[in-house]
Amino acid sequence: MKAEESNKAEEQPETAAEAAAAEEEAAAAQPETTYKSLLLSAHGGYDKVKLQVKKGSPVPKAGEVLVRVKACGLNFADLMARQGVYDRLPSLPVSLGMECAGIVEELGEGVTDRQVGDKVMVLNRFGLWQELVTIQTNHTFLMPDGMSFEEGAAFLVNYITAYMILFHFGNLRPNQSVLIHMAAGGVGTAAVQLCKTVDNITIFGTASASKHENLKENGVLHPIDYRSNDYVEEVRKVSPKGVDIVMDPLGGTDTCKAFNLLKPMGTLVIYGAANLLTGQKKNIMALAKSWWNQFSVTAMQLISANKSVCGFHLGHLDEELELITSVVSTLLDLYKQGKIKPKIDTMFSFEQVGDAMRQMQEKKNVGKVILIPDMPKEEAEKDATEEAKKDAKSEGKKDAKEETKKDAKGEAKKDAKKDAKKDAKEDAKKDAKEDAKKDAKKEEN
Q1: Does the keyword Oxidoreductase apply (predicted)?
Q2: Which domains does the chain have, with CATH numbers?
Q3: Which residues contact 252 (CB under 8 A, 6 or more apart)?
């Protein structure tokens, strides 16, 4: 018995140093924790947002949770931040992203209102385009049953924005009319759905012609192709007095048009400056033009016009957490009732972030553009192929339309030529008859 105990003792590390070395060796054998992060390295084009792999894992502080991100939302604010025309970011380099959805993996000290395993949506000014994020619990919202991570990443920014514009500022009520610019985008889609929760709302929505069928299916009674028609004229054809609410994400001269389109007692809500995004990089001419054409109105003009003008910026409400939480609670009730549901346009992997930004900036999306941190390569390639097919189909339709126009013009020219020949022939006959009559008359004389 003593011999066995002696053998066991010999099998154990002889010193504390050996024990420590054994622990280090075991730790080294474990794979190192890493996570993906999209960082804005400098202002400029799509290539300025780069994928980095960080080592280790963030540790939640008191009152925070660690969330493993499954999907991230892309917003116009992210595009503007990339160009350097968004003022709510710290110094570079910085991770972009105002919203995401994922699973709580770890709790910080004192956290009692969240549990490991909770599915949550997250809202923040920046920093959420990462595979792992630490965040205060009051910036997280529990996802309802049945909501996907993609829907969760498409929910907060768009629906909070649309809801507060329409109901807090616009006081939307039955039998009113609303003009929604960029009606096929994330905020536009949310606004259309929210308008349909109120009786008898007349919705005007601007979008390129290829998106009109989709707009009609979603409830836009009057889709307007802003590229080929004057939307002011189109609105007044239907409603000569104008509309009750205009949602303006454009800025510049469009804000002036919006104000003039309001009915008496109407409300204009300005919530963006999409007209600044004219290319990949910041356009000084576009900035100067927007500044020169910026809307200006005096208090006395507002009084005599009986109109109101409001400004909305969700990024500047990040301290109003009680207000935001109340709005999210209302929106989640509407989601559970089936009255609103995020529409996902396309999903891109973190590696395809440039393509995702291009998709949104070129206004090709119908609904929300989503970034997926750990999207399998095969799925990413499949989505890219599908997107290429959609673009090719769109271009095909465009080419077919141009060909039809060209053929129509050709036919019109042919018809005109035939008519001209026919008219010339008739004129020649007529002239010949007249000459014959004159000659006959001369002969008689």
Answers
A1: yes
A2: 34-154 (3.90.180.10), 158-319 (3.40.50.720)
A3: 273, 275, 289, 290, 293, 294
